[in-house]
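Saturday, quiet lab. Running sequence design on the structure tokens for the scaffold JK sent over.
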């Protein structure tokens, strides 16, 4: 019995020793399965100058179309005057062919009066035609072209007008910036010249 107790005691001591000598495993910290989502990169706004350049091209294209339509309106008005003057010219030619004999005084007098009236009407119309032709396309023709475009596509026309205002505002802003830069350069030059005069006046020399 004494031996059994000693063996049991020895076995128990060995177990205790194993437990104390066995290294304790550290628990691994749970790893995150999903990484923190990256914030989306902000969309860079297009370069302002490039955007204005594109809008300027659209405006130039619109202005060319408007100029073409204004030219068509001008040509139409010229043709309209010719069309109105042509019948009068035909009447004049007909009157000349049917000139009464000189001895029929009253008929000649009436004929001459009618002919003179026709000639005056034709002269005024052709004079108006020549003036309109020499004047060329006017702002009124362009305004009529704008009105026609607005009636055809009012939404597009409003977008074009908005672009025009934006481009104008941008150009004014750039002109102001350029003016400020020039003024700053002039002020700097004046200061430099003034400093040079002070140095020369005081006979200040610098070692080189």
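Result came back. Writing it out in full:
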């Amino acid at each position: 019995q004494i031996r059994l107790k000693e063996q049991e005691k020895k076995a128990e001591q060995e177990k205790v020793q194993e437990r104390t000598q066995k290294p304790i495993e550290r628990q691994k910290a749970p790893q995150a399965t999903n990484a923190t989502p990256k914030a989306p990169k902000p969309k860079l706004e297009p370069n302002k100058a490039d955007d204005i350049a594109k809008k300027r091209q659209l405006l130039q294209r619109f202005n060319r179309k408007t100029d073409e339509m204004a030219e068509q309106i001008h040509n139409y008005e010229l043709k309209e005057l010719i069309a109105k003057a042509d019948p009068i010219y035909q009447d004049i030619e007909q009157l000349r062919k049917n000139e009464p004999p000189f001895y029929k005084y009253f008929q000649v007098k009436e004929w001459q009066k009618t002919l003179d009236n026709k000639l005056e009407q034709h002269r005024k119309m052709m004079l108006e035609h020549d003036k309109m032709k020499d004047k060329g396309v006017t702002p009124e023709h362009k305004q009529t072209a704008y009105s026609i475009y607005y009636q055809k596509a009012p939404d597009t026309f409003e977008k074009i007008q908005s672009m025009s205002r934006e481009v104008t505002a941008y150009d004014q802003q750039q002109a102001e910036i350029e003016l400020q830069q020039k003024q700053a350069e002039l002020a700097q030059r004046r200061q430099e010249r003034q400093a040079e005069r002070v140095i020369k006046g005081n006979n200040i020399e610098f070692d080189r």
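Notes for JK: The two ends are 113 Å apart (CA to CA). Residues 48-97 form the longest helix (50 residues). Ask whether to fix the surface positions before the next round.
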